[in-house]
Amino acid sequence: MAISSAASPRFSTPPHHHHHFVIAINRSLTQPKLPHPSTKPISSRLSSSPSSFRSISGPNFSSKCRSCGRKLPFSIRACSQADAAGSSPLTKSFSELRDSCWRFLRPHTIRGTALGSIALVARALIENPDLINWWLTFRAFCGLVALICGNGYIVGINQIYDIGIDKVNKPYLPIAAGDLSVQSAWFLVLFFAAAGLLIVSWNFGPFITSLYCLGLFLGTIYSVPPFRLKRYPVAAFLIIATVRGFLLNFGVYYATRAALGLTFQWSSPVAFITAFVTLFALVIAITKDLPDVEGDRKFQISTLATKLGVRNIAFLGTGLLLANYVAAIVAAIYMPQAFRRNIMVPTHAVFALGLIFQAWVLEQANYTKEAISQFYRFIWNLFYAEYIIFPLI
What is the CATH architecture assignment of 267-392? Predict the structure, then answer.
């Protein structure tokens, strides 16, 4: 989500890989010039010479040599004939496909799903340490793979139907960037849905399978016409809060207890994390539209951010999260038999202070797009942090 001296820009290439280029430049400086039919300036000749350079793309200083991976100033992507001849097209194609598929999965959502499932499983095992066996480890891994598949289906189907919006809001996504075809995207989402359903139905029984299907259904109507409920703020918030808040936490905890041979029973920490994360998912649903206001307005997608403004939504999301943290501290103080007060109180106080500081930074930056994106990333980091401390509370 290194520059040479600015006063005297110079072209440089890494040693060894581009020695032919350096020798050529030295000869041009030391030998008398001979008549040459070309009268183009050196920058034009360099940019049009396929044997020495791939491209010159102006002021983008972060370009890399395709063969050696070294950064080159002023976006000169220098590659000698020997380097180009030694590269493997098959390896390059596989690497690019892997990168596109990884971006297609939206890694920040995978981290949230993985951390949530691991934390809930760990909590159930901590509560029943005498029932732990190695078979549970395999089943837990299968459940994690199924959840990642479900996550991939939901974020993938959203990208397929949001190509135009993503070209404005998220041009780095693989379909919008042209790195992944729509046909390949459809293959991936159908594979994720089928694989996830098979894993769940073989390992976790009809009830968990029905919850899994409900999650896929909600993810579908969120993005796919004619429903496309993401157009309606309240419906969109409820879907995200239900899938990422209630279904994930309740479903994983229920499945883990069932695998241990136990009937479902709420514990205070699990009830807390389910309520906490459901409200947190609501905040994510609200604030996720902050960086996307430009594209949403262009494609007439109605969100609270487009209606109320970025500043008001940032304050609303911050206020809801602060209420979440205050409730966590109060619960720890008044229910010491259910929670570890020495962990719950200081950690949530620190999280709340960090949130206030980030909201202040956003205000000072005057709500630029970069500052909004940083604020949104920080909210996801708080989401991860809550699951990290959950097994300890």
Answer: Up-down Bundle (1.20)
